[in-house]
Amino acid sequence: MFMLITYDVEAKRTNKFKKLLRRYLNHDQFSVFAGDITDAQAIKLRRELSQLMIPDDKVTEISCANRHNIEVNHLSKHESGKGELKRSPLNDHRRDFTVL
After folding, report:
1. Which positions does UniProt annotate for Mg(2+) binding (predicted)?
2. How distant, in Å, are the alpha carbons of 9, 33, 65, 67, 76 from that of 37?
3. Of the N and C termini of the chain, which has fewer Cβ atoms inside 10 Å?
C-alpha cells in the first residue's frame, strides 16, 4: 500500500517521530513522510506510533491500495500573493525508483 503520514508535535519530540518514520517511509518535507509499505509494516508502524504518541500529538495517515491511484499536488501561491493557487503534480510516489 502507499502511505503518507504527517505529524504536529512539540518541537522537543520531533526527532523521535522522524527517526521512527524514516525506518518505514521516505522523508519528503519537515514532518511529512510517504512511501510504499506492506500491510505488516503498517501494523508495526502504527503500534510503534501508539507507544510514542501522547494525547496532544496530531498525526495524520493517508493510505491507499497502491501509489498509482492517488493524486498528489504541491500548492503554491504567486510571489505577489494574488491570484489562484498553482497546482504542481508531485509524481515521485508513482515511480518505482528515485534518482539520487
Report:
1. 8
2. 23, 12, 10, 10, 28
3. C
